[in-house]
Amino acid sequence: MTSTISTVGILGAGRVGMALARQALKAGYDVKIATAKPPTEIALMVDLLAPGATSVSADTAARDSDVVILALPLGKYRTLHPENFAGQIVIDAMNYWAPTDGTIAEFEDEASSSEVVQRFLPDARVVRSLSHIGYHELEEQALPPGDPERQALALAGNDAEARRLVAGFIDRLGYDPFDAGELAAARNFDGGTPIFGGRMRLDEMRRLLGEAPLVGEAAE
Ligand SMILES: NC(=O)c1ccc[n+]([C@@H]2O[C@H](COP(=O)([O-])OP(=O)(O)OC[C@H]3O[C@@H](n4cnc5c(N)ncnc54)[C@H](OP(=O)(O)O)[C@@H]3O)[C@@H](O)[C@H]2O)c1
């Protein structure tokens, strides 16, 4: 089982996948990136947009990386092969966006979409993160530890060791990690919450997320 992260696999070579690839390379990680297409079809684009990253197949990115980031349209999550993710730390950055994904009943209730993804990938150690920051901001807003303007990024997942490792990854990307706890806590930083799309430092995020009742839970 992974005890440190050195290789990052990214599924999705669009806006988010490429921004993440560049930022992870800058932070010193080995980066593998894939779409559903053969790697030769994206190799030139990857060389241009994220030089230093390796184009691989989706199977390789998922199986042969210390952490796998899901950066594909959420509506396509069922095209993933669950057997590739057994035991893997998976960062789910995907958001439900009906105008793009179409209306999908299973994402219409108050549970986080990552809870659905975790059920589909039962043996993966799913951590929701990197989902509440815009792709264009990810590189622009990164700052070194201790900078007073440094932003926080929330994470949630059911595996404490996976959360710890993802927190270290977030820190190296240039953000203060905030561990919100179990995966259901991701509801509190999904679309429609003040965290989503908002710039926030760690103290403010701690205040908001630390005190918030879970979205969907009946008020006492
Ligand atoms: N846009 C943002 O600022 C933002 C921020 C946070 C999170 N997100 C979420 O991040 C995800 C990606 O957003 P995006 O804006 O980067 O989308 P995008 O630009 O449309 O890119 C999606 C990428 O996923 C690939 N893909 C499709 N099916 C795949 C599969 N089965 N396996 C691997 N790759 C596959 C696509 O490749 P093809 O060329 O083969 O289709 C494409 O490279 C979405 O779920 C979105 O909600 C977006």
Feature tags:
8-stranded mixed beta sheet, alpha/beta, binds NADP nicotinamide-adenine-dinucleotide phosphate, 220 residues, Rossmann fold
Describe the structure.
- An 8-stranded mixed β-sheet has the order 3-2-1-4-5-6-7-8, sandwiched between helices.
- Helix content is about 30%, strand content about 15%.
- The chain has one domain (about 5-210): NAD(P)-binding Rossmann-like Domain (Rossmann fold, 3-Layer(aba) Sandwich), CATH 3.40.50.
- It is of the alpha/beta class.
- The protein has 8 helices and 8 strands; from the N terminus they run βαβαβαββααβαβαβα.
- The protein has helices at about 15-25, 45-50, 60-65, 100, 115-120, 135-140, 160-175, 200-210; strands at about 5-10, 30-35, 55, 65-70, 90, 125-130, 150-155, 175-180.
- It binds NADP nicotinamide-adenine-dinucleotide phosphate.
- NADP nicotinamide-adenine-dinucleotide phosphate (NAP) binds near residues 76 and 93.
